[in-house]
Amino acid sequence: MIQLKGIAWDHPRGYEPLIAASKEFSKRNPNVNIKWDIRSLKEFGDMPIEDLIGKYDFITIDHPYMGQADANNLLLNLKDKISKDVLDMHAKESVGASYQTYNFKNNLYALPVDAAALVAAYRKDLLAELGCSGLPKSREELFAYYKTLPSRKSVAWALCPTDFWCVFLTICAQDGGRDFIKDYTLNKTVGVNALNEIKKHLDFIHPESMNWNPIQILDRMGEGNEIVYSPYLFGYTNYSRKGYSKNLVHFTNSPVNPKQEISTIMGGVGLAISANCKEVKTAVDFVSFVADAKIQKGIYTKEGGQPGNLVAWTSKENNELCSDFFTNTMKTMKDAYIRPQHPMWNSFQEQGACLLHEGVLKNIESEKLMKLLNELYKELCNG
């Protein structure tokens, strides 16, 4: 019996489809057993791969880790193990740039099994009751939108440190373009304007926004009636499925800057193999199995997953299952901003997120925060 072990992240979207796919794989390969552990959403974004590769064969991973994985030889290069024809198909069936994000220096360290970006969530039923017919399409329209809602209803943003960082980078990219980061420096003017804009929104949004992540907001939207709209959070198809929570949550594209063809920051999950894995052939077969269009469109989506394959996203059945989540957020995925992937980005991302979040809570001037942020970036990357 071949025993393999993986680590997913702590939400039904993160672990249930992988457990289901593992059971199906074992049915077809009775000599293989795959067990899954879970880690928190914060650990998914921040925990170093070095802490995982000795214990796990499979690692669910965020794409900015590719540079670190490459520099320290942490993950298996799938280009050496999967045929070019199969990889070309994965590239063709990618949702936006999902497939490309797991490439680094012509090596491929994961296959996309989950695709995501910051999108907007809303309670369609509540907005209909309030007579609110439209949603803001641009960031400028957001300020006017707040005034259309009665005082008992709220707009919430996901602005805990990790998600504050994602919103901040989104606004920077929408205003400064895809190259607002150069030579380990964020464009100071763009960054200052983004921070000042976020601070202005804090006067209008739910007071707990600075503490919340997307799951906390979506749980409240699904169970209560206070929050009617959230413009920037990572989408979860689970909440757009009937019966998952008390109330159905719909999703659509986030507000943008109409002057740029950039939507929001890309997230998603890649399935990678530890460089220490002993059963390489079986592990590669499983990763290919999970990422295959038939599995992605079928069991992976049906068991609560948010697939990374375009065939699954364009499936009529899957869109019916998820209240057109995929169709209604496709433009965001196509135009998403990709974060840097160099080896020190993850350390910078974690520390930079805390720096900005704490600075805004303490009402530190945006100019000073950007100065500190760029000093941190250069220190990490040059040291």
UniProtKB/TrEMBL annotation:
It comes from the Bacteria. It is found in: Periplasm. Its main location: periplasm. The keyword Transport applies. Keywords: Signal, Transport. It holds the Pfam family SBP_bac_1. GO terms for cellular component: periplasmic space. Belongs to the bacterial solute-binding protein 1 family. This is ABC transporter substrate-binding protein. The lineage of its organism: Bacteria, Pseudomonadati, Bacteroidota, Bacteroidia, Marinilabiliales.
